[in-house]
Amino acid sequence: xxxxxxxxxxxxxxxxxxxxxxxxxxxxxxxxxxxxxxxxxxxxxxxxxxxxxxxxxxxxxxxxxxxxxxxxxxxxxxxxxxxxxxxxxxxxxxxxxxxxxxxxxxxxxxxxxxxxxxxxxxxxxxxxxxxxxxxxxxxxxxxxxxxxxxxxxxxxxxxxxxxxxxxxxxxxxxxxxxxxxxxxxxxxxxxxxxxxxxxxxxxxxxxxxxxxxxxxxxxxxxxxxxxxxxxxxxxxxxxxxxxxxxxxxxxxxxxxxxxxxxxxxxxxxxxxxxxxxxxxxxxxxxxxxxxxxxxxxxxxxxxxxxxxxxxxxxxxxxxxxxxxxxxxxxxx
Length: 332
Ligand code: AVJ
Fold this sequence. Notes:
By secondary structure, this protein is an alpha/beta fold. The protein contains nine helices and 14 strands. Helix 3 runs parallel beside helix 4. The structure holds N,N,N-trimethyl-histidine.
């Protein structure tokens, strides 16, 4: 089901997702909204409006992770590339791929050709970043994959090149412990002894700072959160009224995660015609729309160990807000 849009060699995009997305949205919405408490997977935030809102979030004064990660990449990107010597960069969920330059620039300092493989569920994100980067870099072959990196990681064609897999932005924090472990194990199967994995994670810190980052005063995160209901409305013929729900994000210090919710402002029922079902809400009842886990160096080490990976290095910003961790396969 792959359909390369350009097979000329230097720029190629394979699409594995088009038909699958609607089926998985239908399945996940039915499961999530019939569960107690109700929940929805965060990956459906990112339609074009949601991706736009997320870009706005990254510029909010309260939302520090993107700036902190960028500063770490600016400071240590060349050092990481120097240490790993990658010939190929596989990026999981690059979104706009604005941060990727800090790795691609030093990679392309050397002689040989290099390859960049962005994998994202958003076809427009893959197409835009592929176009932009192919115009910017001469010596870079780009092979975009429109897919779900939980399912399509093994579709990245393997050649002999040394590989760096980058999973930036703290997205791994949107998975629960079981999902993280299976994700990391899957990544592990794609790593040869000299290949490396680079992961961005938000770090545990005081509640005020964490909660402010997910409850911004301009209300952009609230709009981003409610937008998931628009995604369901347009794809599954549903009649959710986003303005009937209140955004709330709270830090759960037992689980060390920010839990983001949509609370019904009053008791009401919504219909999802595409699923032939109705969903009733009690006054104040919530849908959990995202968890965003926060880590420590110790917890990162345990995460990796549980997936057959070894933590090799941790890079952080001066305030220790965010971390980039470098891991390789355990040889044992
Ligand atoms: C950057 C996708 C990991 O958990 O911080 C931002 C998304 N959600 N504000 C995060 C997000 C609410 C986010 N990721």
